[in-house]
Amino acid sequence: MKLSQSRAPVFEALEEYRENRIVSFDVPGHKQGKGNPELTEFLGKQCMSVDVNSMKPLDNLCHPVSVIKEAEELMADAFGAEHAFFMVNGTSSAVQAMVMSVCKRGDKIIMPRNVHRSSINALIVCGAVPVYVNPGVNKQLGIPLGMSVEAIRSAIAEHPDAKAIIVNNPTYYGVCSNLREIVRIAHQAGMKVLVDEAHGTHFYFGDYMPLSAMSVGADMAAVSMHKTGGSLTQSSALLMGKDVSEGYVRQIINLTQTTSASYLLLASLDISRKNLALNGKKIFERVTSLASYGRQEINKIGGFYAFSRELINGDTIFDFDPTKISVHTRDIGLAGIEVYDILRDKYEIQIEFGDIGNILAIVSVGDKLLNIERLISALSEVKRLYSKDSAGMLDHEYIEPVVVCSPQEAFYADKKQLPLRETLGKVCAEFVMCYPPGIPILAPGERITKDALEYIIYAKAKGCNLTGAEDINTEKINVMTES
Amino acid sequence: MEMWYTEEQTKNVRFSIRCDKQKYSAQSDFQRIEIFSTPEFGDVLVLDDRIMLTENDEFVYHEMITHVPMAVNPSIKNVLVIGAGDGGTVRELCRYKTIENIDMVEIDRMVVDACKEFLPTVACRLDDLRVHVHIDDGLRFVRGVVNKYDLIIVDSTDPIGPGEGLFTAEFYGNCYKALNDEGILVNQHESPFYRTYAKAMKQAHRKILQFFPVVKVYQAHIPTYPSGHWLFGFASKRYHPLHDLDEGKWNRLGIDTKYYNTRLHKGCFALPTYVTKQLMESE
């Protein structure tokens, strides 16, 4: 019999466990918090009492047979998937599981270059080779777009042996590709479609949302429940379509997944899924109206451009996530990262990220109108007090990657560390990226071009947080010795 | 049966008032609203478990938040009041015949309606022809206004809850923009005594300093507010609250007050040493 979405099996089992007052001679050693009073005072007794280990009544994430299995079935049902896995190592682990489930060493995988680092990390681990598709850039805004169907068609024609295609749905900025068509042509060519839906949880629940991966027959999707769905940070879900072996994917997940999954994370997934299934429609209607009010008011200030569905062009911007507040800031003479810093330092407002030309504010299940008002008013003040001439600001151009070898080969190759400015023309052996958004400027195995170097130097000067390199200050970059 | 209203002023301090009966209780979109009648303080308005005013001591707060700026610049004509749904601040302002317009921006219509019905001695002037009540978020309202008001009074709740936005840099900056060249901003400035209130007080002071050339703080004694010692902020683009005080002019208006007088005006900016220190820390 199918369980009702108002149930939450893991949550219910934990409640029962707590009521039974079990004496524990197992891990964790804090024993319901008693062994760590300061932490218990900080997090609360309730929380510590369910920070427990796998045991028969609570099931085991590595091999679920009872309450976790039921909770995963409910998750799958809520998302319209064949099967769902609870993930406790972040959406990064879900993305990696997707890639490693369909690719082996030497296999090709088609992806847009603006993927999250977790996808390319998976290639370092499993040895697959990326075939990058230029996602295109909106010149005015300097944001990378979605892959065009035509670009994918030609990538498929050039690499008919590729195993799969990765699609962002949506990108960090909210841009969606024509996923239905991509799935159709990929399946025709015998390729799997893996969808990074780190920012797409709400697509499954709200009305008037872009199409979700499962609804158009994609093979797998990684969904960050914690990003817009309300579960605890690091909790996530991996969704399966029809033609993927659940058992094999579980084996892949278990290669790298912890064997001590946190029940706090599992319960948060369970409860959030229940909330979304029961109330998601209403919740995201509210979120959408907050975001669209926010965009409207921000656009009234002048100078800022909060962009949205008016950009839709039927292809590289097939759809746009209406819950995002993405704002172009360059016309007030400030880089997105500068606005991001001012908002935090002067106005105590933390937004998701700022890059060269834009900022992104995430609106989600937890937001209220008063806070949106604060953001709008702060932006109007930023313009009044900080705006300057926008001449001389860098346009973000798509940096065409020149792939010399696979990320794995480059990462494990003999390498040396060179000062940034001496690396031109060498083959990069590590990642360089701004975080957030975590989209690599350089990935292992790519030739270091003048454009890439200039971008890195400009981003550093504007105060972006550069990560990925072995040198924590990104003053030196690892390059392959051969090159 | 004994009935007491108890307010947790801090985690470790409680303040109780004996009640006769509850007159009103409702949950609005923004907060819990209650009105009790009490033998000691008369009727008491409570929002989200915080006393906003009592009939017997509200005169201190409302006189101090209005007459101090009005005595510094008695020719004020156009006033914006933010918060103040109970009507007390508006009542005091309405005593000046020279004021031509009062815009009052309160986020919660239910507070205004409840006070009109149950606290008539406070809300009595909300129907004055010069008063325009706008049900709106103060932060939002002031964002669209440039160079308009002679005086803005921020009569808000504490910085947790619906009043939160009224303690922010974006709000004070927008107020600066909404005031004309002679504009004055007066705000309820929390208390220096208990730590959490003192923190809000210092933060507000630091933020206001960014914008206004003249920034001073004054005090009053309000029995039912936490610690009883309450502060107000006086910020202005031009007027100094003491140097520009025209005692004779204000006294000739013949406004009959219970707490405020021009001698007190001159004294209320003299702050205890520990308060001065706290303010200096945030500068």
Structure characterization notes:
The complex is a heterodimer of chains A (483) and B (283). Chain A is an alpha+beta fold and 483 residues long. Chain A has three domains: 9-277, Aspartate Aminotransferase, domain 2, CATH 3.40.640; 281-386, Aspartate Aminotransferase, domain 1 (Alpha-Beta Complex), CATH 3.90.1150.10; 407-480, Ornithine Decarboxylase, Chain A, domain 4 (Alpha-Beta Complex). Chain A contains 15 helices and 20 strands. Chain A has helices spanning 9-19, 37-43, 45-49, 67-79, 90-102, 117-126, 149-158, 179-188, 225-228, 246-256, 263-301, 336-347, 369-386, 407-412, 450-461, and strands at 83-87, 108-112, 129-133, 137-138, 143-144, 164-168, 175-176, 192-197, 220-223, 236-240, 305-307, 319-320, 324-328, 353-354, 358-362, 415-419, 432-434, 439-442, 466-467, 476-480. Chain A has a seven-stranded mixed beta sheet with strand order 1-10-9-8-6-2-3, with helices on both faces. In chain A, helix 4 (67-79) packs parallel to helix 11, helix 11 (263-301) crosses helix 13 (369-386) and helix 12 crosses helix 13 (369-386). The longest helix of chain A has 39 residues, at 263-301. Chain A is globular. Chain A starts with 8 loop residues before the first helix and ends with a strand. The model of chain A has no long low-confidence stretch (mean pLDDT 92). Chain B has 283 residues and is an alpha/beta fold. Chain B has two domains: 4-54, Spermidine synthase, tetramerisation domain (Spermidine Synthase, Chain: A, domain 2, Roll); 58-282, Vaccinia Virus protein VP39 (Rossmann fold), CATH 3.40.50. Chain B contains ten helices and 13 strands. Chain B has helices at 58-72, 88-93, 109-118, 120-123, 138-143, 169-178, 195-209, 247-252, 262-268, 273-282, and strands spanning 4-10, 13-18, 21-27, 32-38, 42-47, 50-54, 78-83, 101-106, 131-135, 149-155, 179-188, 214-221, 229-236. In chain B, the strands form three sheets. A seven-stranded mixed beta sheet of chain B has the order 9-8-7-10-11-13-12, sandwiched between helices. Chain B has a four-stranded antiparallel beta sheet with strand order 3-4-5-6, covered by helices on one side. In chain B, helix 7 crosses helix 10 (273-282). In chain B, 48% of the residues are buried. The A-B interface holds A 346-348, 369-370, 373-374, 376-378, 380-381, 384-385 and B 137, 139-140, 143, 162, 164-165, 168-171, 173-174, 177.
